[in-house]
């Protein structure tokens, strides 16, 4: 008995040592797994970016296709496959048109940038004239030392990859529409449990609804803002009005910092063409007021309670995905963050992550999801799937 008592502290100590070693191994394995995933994200970013955009476009149009396929005009009913083909054709034409517009504007800007190089360098140096002639001369020498041609070649190379990326996105969207009839069946067979399949289907539906609303509102606000900037530059009879409007439209999809960058670029372009501080300040004020009114007043009114993300979390997400995927990663940062918060809010072990990502720390109120709602959504999904199969037959 005494031997057992004497050995018990050693046994307890060995158990604690084993537990600590197990935790250390778990952390090390997690770090290694994160490093491997990060490496794959960087190496395969061209394909993964196209896939992510294709999934978003597919989710934006899938519900509309289901609604259209259920409409009846007398005895005539639009077949599901026909609605899918029309959707893919519209998406393809829209993407190709947008890509052509972007490439044409990039070529226009690049072809005329060299003629504005000297004016741009002097304009940047004049911004520091209030600090003295020596500082202005030093800034001018520093700006002139920058090799503009290398940046122009890099921009031209990026423009060349846009078309190939668009073609890959169209292919992904087409295959997603071809496979969408079997998503529900595949999910049930994969999970081998109808309750779990319904739960996952409901979570996916919640993600799709909120991301779709966010993207639609952002697209509307960005379009109106881009048109306003275009008209503003047209009023002052400045060049690159179309390019600045398109740039504003694109950058407004980047939360928090996109509108600021767009306003500064528009002001700098105006100042280069009209080197008068009063005109540049007026354009800066008007563009800033437009961005503030649409981004901070109209946008929250339309968005409602769809997104209540942590501002600090958005900045971290922008920095991470911007470092991994560049500018496209910054566009996708918020949809990824919304998806991560919804998923983590329904996993007990990952719930602290959802609390940190939410603004008020109440992810349950932002993303309520009961089992009854999951059952209803699963039943609706199966009904849509049966209707799509009948239409396809």
Task: Describe the model.
This protein is mostly helical and 393 residues long. Among the domains are: 1-43; 46-200, no CATH class. The chain has 17 helices and 2 strands. The protein has helices spanning 2-43, 45-69, 80-113, 117-126, 133-144, 148-179, 183-191, 194-235, 241-251, 258-273, 277-303, 311-325, 327-331, 333-345, 351-357, 363-366, 371-392, and strands at 72-73, 76-77. A two-stranded antiparallel sheet has the order 1-2. Strand 1 (72-73) and strand 2 form a beta hairpin. Helix 8 packs antiparallel against helix 11 (277-303), helix 9 packs antiparallel against helix 10 and helix 14 packs across helix 15 (351-357). The longest helix is centred in the N-terminal third of the chain and has 42 residues, at 2-43. The protein is globular.
